[in-house]
User: Fold this.
Amino acid sequence: MTPGFCITLSKADKPKGRTCVVLLTDSYGRPMRDLRISITDRCNFRCFYCKSAVFSNAKERAEILTFEEILRLARLFVGLGITKIRVTGGEPMVRRDVDRLIAELSRLPGLEDLALTTNGFNLAEKAVLLRANGLNRVTVSLDSLDGARFAAITKSNDFEKVLAGIHEAKRIGLEPVKVNCVLVRGFNEDEVVPFAEFSRQHDIAVRFIEFMPLDEQGQWNREKVVTGAEVLARLRERYEMVPVGKVNDHATSADYAFADAPGRIGLIMPVSVPFCGQCSRVRLTADGKIRTCLFSVIEHDVRTVLRSGADDSAVIEFITETVQKKERGHRINEPDFEPPPRSMSFIGG
Ligand code: SAM
Assistant:
């Protein structure tokens, strides 16, 4: 094992029932707790701010990690102190047998939290099976509560199915069910209050995410970003919003409750209030690249290491050395910011 990666954790960081040593820390002393695994670069939606309407740049199947490769890496990461895994994509639910992968991941000793991010198109049908297979919770992306606008944003007619999926996830206890809404000025910034009403009525957490420069077609610009501060001001015109303490030091959202109703609002503000200082995340792309930051311009090819026949200790060494290269923070607000070459759909949101 590469020396120098052991640190003592604060009480809040200490994983339940495990030793207080994390083996995976970056060069700034940040412990890595959270692994996001993209299991496919394909998506059945074409959200205008994320993915172009062409399939051509999806990878060949042979380039995509097999379930066995994903599980091996997940096991090694968990052995290094990762306690939370989020399965994402592309659209993870378009990959065949995703429920089998969830079942295998949920059995990893030491994993405390297994979550899924999905556009929700088939969640109503699959939620019970996913939960039975060990999924703890789900986040559903939904950018409009208006069916026609939803179709315009996603190029999909699955609006009702997505809503049904959210309600089914809530009904069967895939909690907390979170709804992620990316606000883009000129498209859906008028939906802050309708989403707040949705949250209050159904006791579901809605998180507003600032539009990030990660779109395939380069449409991002600062004017299109609806900041968290703007959202909060709009909410406060109508509701008494009560700040809620962070779940843990690494939480990415500023959370608010309504003084007079159930529901939660989260503000995720990577552009206006970067939260890199406490970042505990590592990403694995569907084609087997480790990304140490959502905005990394460099990827680390662990697939080649796996397929070269490396034993576990060699793979662990590759992972720990890669994490040492983790960026101090993203550079969205720097004049020389260079967006990553792949969109969110290919990186894994
Ligand atoms: N297909 C799944 C879904 O829709 O949730 C998982 C992948 S998707 C890329 C993950 C999240 O990234 C979605 O909530 C999506 O809205 C968000 N996203 C994609 N591009 C984004 C961008 N440029 N800025 C902010 N969020 C973005």
Summary: The two ends are 30 Å apart (CA to CA). The chain has a mean pLDDT of 90.
